[in-house]
Amino acid sequence: MQENPIDWGHLADLAGKVACVVAERWHIVEADDVKQAMLEHALRERKNIAPVADNERLMRKIFYTAGQRYAARERVYRDLMDSEYFYTADEARNALKLLIYTTDEFANMIGKKDTLNHCEITDNLHTARMEAEAGLKKLNDRYQKLLMAHYVYGLPIGSEADKKACHRGVIALSYEMNRSIRRKVHA
Description:
- The chain is mainly α.
- It folds into two domains: about 10-80, no CATH class; about 90-185, no CATH class.
- It has nine helices and no strands.
- It is elongated.
């Protein structure tokens, strides 16, 4: 069986056009880098790309998806390496557990159990709680419901799929909490 020959020149031109669209939407990436990521994806997947390489509409979708994924990876990397505070998934979990308290209840708890050597509830937890509350609103409905049910209300998770989704939801929440910090800094 012989592979269909791929017109790499045509694909490079198409990738360049799609890369410009992606780069306009994601200010953290440059069109040339996005184009390179798209072509690299096409090269890795050439066995799957070869049969559909002539279908420009489908190739645009493939390139767009590859470009979006590249830009998202770059944003996460930048968030991690920009010397700003970075919430971990564990910190997002802890912040979620604090949502069971109303804002007034939580404010009254600050400083109540402190000693000279140890601070039980700090302003940092208050900030993390606010970031978690804002980040939770940006997650999809399934993640919101699972995270609230498990971490705030303390209900057990039923299925294995829900456990995985809950874990992904915590990671997504930590990403949103970190993006919230960057939005405030860059605004």
